[in-house]
Structures are given as C-alpha cells and as structure tokens.
C-alpha cells in the first residue's frame, strides 16, 4: 500500500505549522473518481487532546481486526495497568 501513497506538501498548510497540523486527503478510486477530504487538523495534538474513551475505542477497533473480544479485553486491561507490572513479559505474551 505504501507504494500507492503520495505525499504532496501544501504551502498554505505548512505556513500554519507547528501552530496547526493540517492535512487534506485525496483518494483516487479504481474507476478514476477522486474523493477529497476537507482540510482537517489531527486529533490528539497537545492543544486538542483526546479523551481516554476515544483512545480506548480506537484501540478496540484496531485490536478486533486481529484478536477476539476476550483477548482484546485482556490486552486492554494489561496495557491499562502496565505501570504496575513487575516486568513486561506478561504484556508481551498477550501480544
């Protein structure tokens, strides 16, 4: 997929950096149609922090592509408590 991605700088967006981190995405479909997003700021910047609930939901959506629900729950719990683990081995075994 990386071979199909092209990054093109935009002078207007670059002029706003680092105060704002803006991007626009254009997807060209197989039939040649262009789908273009509006200029969008990245979520999760220090100035626009996302909630823990949003981070957890994103984790679940990504993890469910590879794990069943029980494994996702176990992994989420281990990650949420990783600061209290005596070592990282138990966490790594879940991955």
What does this structure look like?
- With 95 residues, this protein is α+β, with helices and mostly antiparallel strands.
- The chain has 2 domains: 39 residues, no CATH class; 45 residues, no CATH class.
- It is 38% helix and 11% strand.
- It has 4 helices and 4 strands.
- The strands form 2 sheets. The protein has a two-stranded antiparallel ribbon with strand order 1-4.
- β2 and β3 form a beta hairpin.
How far is the N terminus from the C terminus?
24 Å
Shape: extended
- Discrete helix count: 4
Largest sheet: 2 strands, antiparallel
Name the structural class: alpha+beta
Using the CA coordinates, give the radius of gyration. 19 Å
What is the chain-wise order of helices and strands?
Answer: HEEEEHHH
Mean pLDDT over the residues:
89
Low-confidence stretches: none
Number of domain modules: 2
Approximately what portion of the residues adopt beta-strand conformation? 5-15%
> Care to count the β-strands?
4
Q: Percentage of helical residues?
A: 25-40%
Strands of the widest sheet, in order across it, are 1-4
């Amino acid at each position: 997929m990386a071979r199909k991605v092209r990054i093109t700088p935009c002078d207007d967006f670059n002029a706003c950096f680092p105060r704002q981190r803006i991007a626009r995405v254009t997807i060209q479909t197989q039939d040649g149609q262009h789908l273009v997003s509006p200029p969008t700021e990245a979520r999760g910047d220090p100035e626009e922090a996302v909630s823990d609930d949003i981070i957890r939901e994103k984790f679940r959506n990504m993890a469910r592509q590879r794990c069943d629900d029980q494994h996702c729950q176990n992994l989420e719990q281990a990650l949420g408590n990783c600061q209290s683990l005596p070592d990282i081995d138990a966490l790594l075994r879940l991955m």
